[in-house]
Specification:
Layout: H1 2-12, H2 15-18, H3 22-41, H4 48-73, H5 81-96, H6 102-126, H7 132-151, H8 162-169, H9 178-196, H10 198-208, H11 210-215, H12 220-246, H13 258-267, H14 279-298, H15 303-322
Helix pairs in contact: 3-14, 4-9, 4-12, 4-13, 4-14, 5-6, 5-7, 5-12, 6-7, 6-12, 8-12, 9-10, 10-12, 13-14, 13-15
């Protein structure tokens, strides 16, 4: 009788509630909890101006985490983010210094550099069958060495071009920062790709079981390589936006985004083992991480303490959701 009544309650429950991912609901619940705790410290934490500023800051992490989510859905990891972010920013600023066409190719060139690093990662994982942790960590070191050699340890240009600064800090719509619009467009494209295209379905299929996806006709190697290329391109694009926000590119500017990007994706319910997760959860994770960073900054927690907290968050979410059965 108890099982029958449970089935009956499930049947009469609205379909909207049945589709809610517990991890996503938990992430949004934590967002409200952090805002509530912050409001006890200062009412500034719930002011519209503060929330809009936090969304703007979250946009940079959101763009980077979008690519990271794609790779994690495959059951892989991308540890090349720190210096791919830096390379994208530096190459965009370097291209802007070219006479004539420089300002027009700055952003595409920076993104293209990130895509090239991503293709190298994808080729190593998909075709050479090297573990993604090893390949991407090696690519990160190579990118670091190339940037140090090319720039001599300094930024290639003192300031980011005007187009990059406008994209990161301007207002195409009054009252709405461009960075938020860029993240919204990136998110809309990701939702469409993951939910409405064969590529997105292949990503989920490979994450659930790569061999089964291969036997069903999916070109798994090509999908994996393209996914890493997109991750690299989005990481570099995030670097370009950061260069515009800071008005210049700098060494190691991407170091602070690796763990937060992974934490945001995992915190949003994407299984670290691959095959399960939604972009809405990643959005919630990004916002939560950004608010948490703000609270920790106000509390004057050192960077080492923040990294420890991100690591604990990843471990906790892995224990809660990482071993859950993959969605069918």
């Amino acid at each position: 009788m108890s099982e029958l009544s449970e089935e009956r309650r499930e049947a009469i429950r609205p379909s909207f509630w049945r589709r809610i991912d517990p991890a996503v609901a938990t992430a949004f619940g934590c967002i409200f909890l952090v805002l509530f705790l912050g409001s006890l410290y200062s009412t500034r934490f719930i002011s519209p101006e503060y929330l809009l500023q936090q969304l703007k800051v979250a946009a940079f992490l959101g763009v980077i985490a979008s690519g990271m989510m794609l790779v994690i859905l495959l059951g892989q990891i991308d540890l090349s983010v720190p210096w791919v972010v830096t390379a994208g920013a530096m190459m965009a600023c370097a291209a802007a210094g070219l006479h004539g066409i420089g300002p027009f190719i700055a952003i595409p060139f920076g993104v293209l550099c990130g895509a090239v690093f991503g293709l190298v990662n994808g080729f190593g994982v998909a075709y050479l069958r090297v573990p993604s942790m090893i390949v991407t960590l090696s690519t990160n070191v190579v990118a670091q060495g190339l940037m140090v050699v090319y720039t001599g340890g300094f930024s290639p240009q003192d300031s980011a071009p005007a187009a990059v600064r406008w994209l990161a800090t301007g207002f195409a719509i009054p009252g709405v920062p461009n960075a938020i619009l860029v993240w919204a467009i990136t998110g809309a494209v990701m939702v469409f790709v993951l939910g409405r295209t064969s590529f997105g379905r292949s990503v989920y299929g490979i994450g659930n079981r790569e061999r089964a996806a291969y036997l069903s006709g999916v070109n798994t190697r090509r999908v994996v390589m393209y996914a890493f290329a997109v991750s690299g391109a989005l990481a570099a694009f995030g670097g370009v936006l950061l260069a515009g926000y800071a008005s210049k590119a700098a060494q190691s500017m991407g170091d602070a985004y690796l763990l937060p990007a992974i934490a945001a994706v995992v915190l949003g319910g994407t299984s670290i083992l691959g095959g399960r997760g939604s972009y809405l959860g990643t959005v919630a994770g990004v916002i939560l991480i950004t608010l948490l960073q703000s609270i920790l900054s106000v509390m004057q927690i050192p960077e080492a303490g923040r990294q420890i907290i991100y690591g604990v968050v990843i471990i906790a979410m892995l224990l809660l959701y990482g071993r859950a059965p993959a969605a069918r």
